[in-house]
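Final report, section 2: Outcomes. Of the targets proposed, AAA+ superfamily ATPase is the one most frequently requested by collaborating groups, and we therefore present its record in full.
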Amino acid sequence: MFYLENEVKRHAEPLLNEMLSESPIVVLEGARQVGKSTLARSVASEREALELTLDNPEVADFAAHDPLGFLRQAGERLLVVDEAQREPSLVLAMKQLVDEDRTPGRFLVTGSADFLKTRGASDSLAGRAEILSLEPLSIGELHERDTPEDWVNWVVNGAPGDLESFTPERTREAILAGGYPVPLQRQTIRARNRWFESYVREVSSRDAAELSAGEFVVALGRMLKMLGSSGQTEMVYSKFARQVGVSEGSARRYLGLAEQMYLISELPAWGLGLNSRAVRKPKMALLDTGLAAYFSGMTAEKTRMVGGQEYFRALAEQFVVAELRKQRTWSEERFNLFHYRNRNDEIDIVIELFDGRLVVVEVKAGLSVQPKAWHTISTLIPDDRVAARVIVYLGEQFQRRSNNTYLMPISSLWTHPAL
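The predicted structure is given below as tokens.
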């Protein structure tokens, strides 16, 4: 069972330090309990800083009644404001102070809701703030990898070198565990489930109520459970609304709220230049596979059973997308993630690099790969833009089938050598 004994260094920390050296405001955003405050404290400990949280009622009252005075109290030190989305008036106050003095590293604000969706924030902070989205822990971070894993960069450079050993069973455990730091510090499934239960109750009541004036609280928990029981799934809003028991318009608003709270992620459909048979629906999933496994009651034993195997396939796809999304924060390659499906076949993940090249990825949750998978990945998207075609699976074998076509373990995402 995956277990986190010590606090680990985040791969995003050098990037956060770089942002603070260049920008007067840095916004560190992400879901509640993914480690934003810990990372902010680590960065603040290396410089003179004043750290405050709006979770403290007295601090929040000061910020609400005198936002300029609140922001000026750090003087020339870095001011770290945790849960900054709780006081929208800080946005305009920061704008005023930064327009007076654009010295880098003045403010580091964190939030478990999208701070820049606060009224007026996007326009007010344009050109003044940089944003870093923090995801749950990557497997490379959990295993304290010295060099941040960068799978896309490794693959497009020919996948050189040997993989570190990582058994299929450990990969299965990694998928089910997810990357939230606190539950990973608990040594039993029961203890982890208690944490997730409390977490869902907190975000569905307190956080959701603050952002929506109580409108979404009742159905949000049902919606999260429905998504958690589906893995990475194509979103048909009318069907989803019926399953949750709300109107389609309400379902879309609930999903928007969950996305603002960083609880879900969207994988858009890719279709540039392809024929009209392409289906353009996004895939939706919970941010973290550990949270999804909690909602579905999935365990390692159940993944081997009839019914559980099908769900585990969807969960494995969700896991690979999540790990790639984490690596995008620090990768040497700039890329976006998509999926592709026409009426007959689909590609799980299409990685589009900023220079237009593609890496096409199929995810298999078994110890072997059927011939049809090779046909799909080799023919569905034309060769002219494809830099690599990869099937990742639960097994351990690495196989180079041609110059740019590979069979790799899912664990290659974090066991590949550094370039």
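Residues 13-133 form a domain with the Rossmann fold fold (CATH 3.40.50.300).
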